[in-house]
């Protein structure tokens, strides 16, 4: 009988079984159907039938390399008929392909949850960018610092134009300076409001805002010079109390004033038309009503513009727009002051 000899390739990563006495290091043959000895050339162990069907005397069964898994045809320890390593095994089932639904694609993903991960915009772990609380707080702090500087300059002009008699006399004589400052203010407002590249580019945004602040300060100081000192002081005090209260309330309340922005814009158009009527109708009561409505409207604008800074309302400003935000708050406060000053001036007949 002739047998085929095949080179032996050891399995990597699996320790080799201990050799029995008289067992060669490499198997001489792979014919599992030989009568008598087992695959390693030693007597058949106890518990396993020899070729004649009679169990050999004594011995502990030695497991073959394929004893703990399904046999693969052609592998070490398998006979040509597909049986296991110790003799013929007609009852063993041949290799069958994976059943339906088996997925052989394995990936190294670290996320093994049955549920999909939350979307990016709903994941609380990703909290950065323009919606970050730290950036938003820095933005609010910067806006109020710029606003404070603007108001200090403006009310310094008001104080000088009110308490210094020479400057008050010069302003009353040279009224053309008011028109010049108004033109400068109008141009500055158009540049800051319409040119986003200017108001976002440092230092040109600060230059434009400084020019606007100086022109507005001159106009406010010139208007204040036509009123009594007591009237100006009272208007400044009331404006400070009203604005501080509105700003604090807008920062703390849960009500969203930004949703009323469209209504306020329509009211502003109506107020402008009302103002043109007051130019032609010289009535003191009508002027007081107009000033009261104007102060009330710009108080509402102050509440809306304050909530635009927060970022958690229906409308909000980008942290890059700190110049535009400071301009909105500044014009709101100045308009409130001028309308309150007009109410006291018309009431006192000045």
Overview of the molecule:
There is one protein chain. The chain has 350 residues and is an all-alpha fold. It folds into two domains: 20-67, no CATH class; 139-348, no CATH class. The protein has nine helices and no strands. The protein is elongated, with a radius of gyration of 46 Å. Residues 47-53, 80-88 and 123-130 have low confidence and may be disordered.
Features:
mainly alpha, 2 domains, elongated, Glutamate receptor, ionotropic, N-methyl D-aspartate-associated protein 1b (glutamate binding), Bax_inhibitor_1-related
Low-confidence stretches: 47-53, 80-88, 123-130
Main beta sheet strand tally, sense and closure:
none
The helix fraction, in percent, is 40-55%
* Average pLDDT over all residues: 75
* Rg calc: 46 Å
| Total DSSP helices | 9
- Helix and strand pattern: HHHHHHHHH
Subcellular location: Membrane
Membrane topology: Multi-pass membrane protein
InterPro entries: Bax_inhibitor_1-related (IPR006214)
Main location: membrane
Compose a concise summary of this entry.
With 350 residues, this protein is mostly helical.
Fold blueprint:
Layout: H1 133-163, H2 165-173, H3 176-194, H4 196-199, H5 204-224, H6 229-252, H7 261-280, H8 284-307, H9 322-348
Helix pairs in contact: 1-2, 1-5, 1-9, 3-5, 5-9, 6-8, 6-9, 7-8, 8-9
Subcellular location: Membrane
Main location: membrane
Membrane topology: Multi-pass membrane protein
């Amino acid at each position: 009988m002739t047998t085929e000899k095949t080179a032996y390739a050891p399995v990597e990563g699996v320790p080799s079984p201990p050799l029995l006495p008289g067992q060669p290091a490499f198997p001489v043959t792979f014919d599992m159907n030989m009568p008598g000895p087992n695959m390693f050339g030693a007597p058949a162990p106890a518990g396993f039938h020899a070729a004649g069907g009679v169990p050999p005397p004594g011995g502990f069964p030695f497991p073959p390399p394929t004893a703990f898994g399904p046999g693969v045809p052609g592998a070490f320890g398998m006979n040509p008929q597909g049986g296991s390593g110790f003799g013929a095994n007609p009852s063993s089932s041949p290799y069958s392909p994976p059943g339906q639904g088996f997925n052989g694609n394995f990936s190294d993903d670290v996320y093994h949850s049955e549920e999909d991960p939350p979307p990016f915009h709903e994941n609380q772990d990703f909290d950065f960018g323009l919606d970050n609380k730290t950036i938003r707080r820095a933005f609010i702090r910067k806006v109020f610092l710029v606003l404070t500087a603007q108001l200090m300059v403006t009310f310094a002009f008001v104080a000088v134009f009110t308490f210094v008699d020479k400057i008050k006399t010069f302003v009353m004589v040279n009224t053309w300076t008011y028109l010049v400052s108004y033109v400068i203010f109008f141009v500055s407002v158009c540049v800051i409001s319409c040119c986003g590249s200017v108001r976002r580019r440092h230092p040109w945004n600060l230059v434009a805002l400084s020019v606007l602040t100086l022109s507005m300060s001159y106009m406010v100081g010139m208007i204040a010079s036509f009123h009594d000192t007591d009237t100006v002081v009272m208007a400044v005090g009331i404006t400070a109390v009203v604005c501080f209260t509105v700003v604090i309330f807008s920062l703390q309340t849960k009500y969203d004033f930004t949703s009323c922005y469209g209504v306020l814009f329509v009211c502003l158009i109506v107020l402008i038309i009302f103002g043109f009527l007051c130019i032609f109708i010289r009535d003191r009561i009508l002027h007081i009503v107009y000033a009261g409505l104007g102060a009330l409207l710009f108080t509402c604008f102050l509440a809306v513009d304050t909530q635009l800074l927060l970022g958690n309302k229906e409308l909000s400003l980008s942290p890059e727009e700190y110049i535009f935000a400071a301009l909105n708050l500044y014009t709101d406060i100045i308009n409130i002051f001028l309308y309150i000053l007009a109410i006291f001036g018309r009431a006192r007949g000045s």
